[in-house]
Amino acid sequence: MIDGIKGTRVVETLQRNSNGEEKLERYVFKVNMTYSHQFIQNTSFSMAIALPSFNLWLLNLKDTDFDDRRSEKLLETNNILIAPWQFCMGQDNNDSTDAIMQHLKDYFQTEGAPVPVGCDTEMARRMLFDLQVTTDLEREIWAENIQGGSSNRLPLKVEKVLVGTMGGLTRMFPNDSMAELTDAEKELLRDPWEQDYYERSLFSEYYTISVPYNAGRYAVGNGTDSGVLVQASKAIRLDKEIAPAVLAAYLKEEDFSNRWIDITTKCPWWNTTCDRSCADEDIFCYLLDNGGFIIGTNQDIYEPFVGSFFGLIEGDIMNEMLNKTVFEKIESYDYQASCPKLEDKQTTAAGRSIHLPSLSFPEALTLNWWATKASWGFVQYTLYDLLFSSWSSTTVDAQENENAEENVSCIKLEKQFFFGPEPHHTDAIECTRNCSREWRTSKVPGTNLMLVVVEADCGYCPNMVVQQAPERVDGPDPCEAVKNPRYRKRPEYCYASHPDENHKTCGGGSCISMSVTTLVCHLVSFYVVMKILKVV
């Protein structure tokens, strides 16, 4: 693109996940992206479109026939959410699900009429298709396999099922599970494209197991009925890798933990003498996801850390896994980050550069001093307000809230971890006083999980901490950065001017114009006051 070449190519790209709690970029995926790029003539710019494999093709619903009567009934259900997108004319982007449903009902009732309701035909038909398909899923998956008498087909108890579609529909089974959500929770769940489970599943061929993010400062769940739900999601893929929807199931953490720990006690066919398993308390077992976050553990003391980064509690092991390429790490700088203001740095509000007369205590006892101070302060404030009126209110607000917490611009170092080329590994950490900890890793087939088994801490290991959360830094060393400069090409054309540009207005916003008449009046008033004080 820098060279202005036109073409299309497939490139393996690292795609960072930016959805989920607090919009933290915790995961990274290797994705084959198709880039189509074109040079824009008579400019120094190129334009490109990047599409993942599941977005190269779309479902063609133009020739699909829908039952109009069934369409109206499908829009009357109460267990769906519709993304706040612009489906129809006259609709606001922040309309509720009920409001959007009413617009779609009006559209389907007038479809084929001389003057139908103005809606995007493709989006409306896609929504109708999603409604019909997910209704069938409710009957086939929930009613027949989970809720009904054949629930013994599943090894784990499923609390609820969620499906999010490419067309903007979110449906939850059973029907009453949607009613248990608050209005705020429903609003956050409306747009499937903004959900963590949706994006991660689209970029993965396996089942994606996840739990809510935990910064390591609080307990996520304790294995009781009020504990966290484990989410297992997977994209539904059709021909040509089209992914019309993502299906997610929610499991109780207690059932999930008991299940995977029990599996470790089963001996393989070639080994009938298994003497150790994760059921043993002196063996530390962890289930990690593809970002290095803890999904489950057999240690009760580490239950509060489920959902947090593994390096916070087992930094020595995490560092060894990085050295042995069990995990890999990428780092990048966020130059537009926001950080809390440091207390040890002196900060002020907008600068008042006009000099104030110094205070002399004997002089302060005279009427002349007070009049001078009052007059000078008034004129100084007026001059300041005239010259910098847009800053004046900001200065006052800053002084009133000088003790309030505020953020400042800063640079943060971001880190993402992902599975390396050696997911199956056995090694040991050699610590002091003949102390060592053996550890083993094995990837769980068909999932985004890895089982890590570690010997108990012998008490003489470094116990280092490996952080994943963004950290405030000073930025990269410029002397090191220049050693590997990025590829650049000077533009062939110079855009120093444009025929339609009016250069007389340039710089007009740097200073607000003041009223000369008002300034003169204030100066005259100041002169008169000074003369009066002199006479007295």
Q: Can you walk me through this structure?
A:
There is one protein chain. The protein is an alpha+beta fold. It contains 13 helices and 17 strands. It has helices spanning about 70-75, 95-110, 120-145, 175-180, 185-190, 195-200, 255-265, 315-325, 360-365, 365-385, 390-400, 480, 515-535; strands spanning about 5-15, 25-40, 45-50, 80, 160-165, 170-175, 210, 230-235, 245-250, 285-290, 295, 325-340, 405-420, 425-430, 435-445, 450-455, 470-475. A hairpin with a 5-residue loop joins strand 10 (about 285-290) and strand 11 (about 295). It starts with 6 loop residues before the first strand and ends with a helix. Residues about 150-155, about 220-225 and about 345-405 have low confidence and may be disordered.
Q: Give the overall shape.
A: globular
Mean pLDDT across all residues, rounded? 77
N- to C-terminal distance: 79 Å
Portion in helices: 25-40%
Chain oligomer state: single chain
Low-confidence stretches are 149-153, 218-226, 345-404
Strand proportion, as a percent range, falls in 15-25%
Query: Main sheet, how many strands, which sense, barrel?
Result: 6 strands, antiparallel
What sequence of helices (H) and strands (E) makes up the elements? EEEHEHHEEHHHEEEHEEHEHHHEEEEEHH
Structural class: alpha+beta
Whole-angstrom Rg = 32 Å
Strand order of the largest sheet: 4-6-5-9-8-7
Got a strand count?
Answer: 17
- SS element count, helices: 13
